[in-house]
What we know:
The structure is a single chain. The protein is an alpha/beta fold. It has a domain at about 20-150 and about 180-205 and about 255-260: Vaccinia Virus protein VP39 (Rossmann fold). It is built from eight helices and seven strands. It has a seven-stranded mixed sheet, sandwiched between helices. Helix 1 (about 20-45) packs parallel to helix 2 (about 60-70), helix 1 (about 20-45) packs across helix 7 (about 210-225) and helix 5 (about 160-175) packs across helix 8 (about 230-245).
Amino acid sequence: MTAASDSDYTPAYTLDNTWEAARERLETLEVSCDPFTASHLDKVGVAPGWHCLEVGAGAGSVARMLCERVGPDGRVVAVDLEPTLLADLSLPNLEVRRLDVVVDELPEAAFDLIHTRLVLVHIPQRNELIPKLVRSLRPGGVLLLEECDLTKAMTADDGVFRPSFEAMYRPVLEAGLDIYWAPTMPGLVEAAGLVDIVELRELHTFTGGSPLAEFWRITYRQFLETQPYTDAERAIMEEGAAAIARPGGQYVSWEWITVWGRRP
């Protein structure tokens, strides 16, 4: 894989991994979501000897899972726009690379599995990227996409979290984030030529003070430090962050949509 050397493209990095609390934020997400990802990897049948590409590897928990499953005869390539949080991973079957999947080259027909988690919703070129990922699959290889649909969170009648959620996402929606995109994935992977397509939907809720509540509380903080908001929006976001920090309550986080398909 080689990086593009001459491009006017500048990636939108909404939630920078170099931010001071980025590791803490991603680790709370891992606690909440890794059991679902592990179950999906089991359903796909990731096996010893597989070559895998982990796109948007974050803090590395999925890369570690994959390394365990593929064993010493397999290989995992973990890529991220900013791989700072992967620096402490030292596994013999793991390669970490700084790479932008939108503009950088990917090898053709190289991987038995390509996986993303909460990555494509952040990329404006997400629809065009799926055929590129499919071309990097070996015949018989699997593309596994785990993304979230925030429709239910944006329509929940809780009076506190939803209004703060709306305020938080306003500037990044304007910048190209699509929090309602995930349900289109089955049609996109089918159009890209995959077969044996599976779609799973799981509603994720949380209570105040839980790991997922802490993920959102830290996310509020990062957005507040990096995005433009009005004073009224800031007040609403701070109110929402305070509410979910308190134990109790029931909030809708997202509908987790998982899609996978096989390259013929």
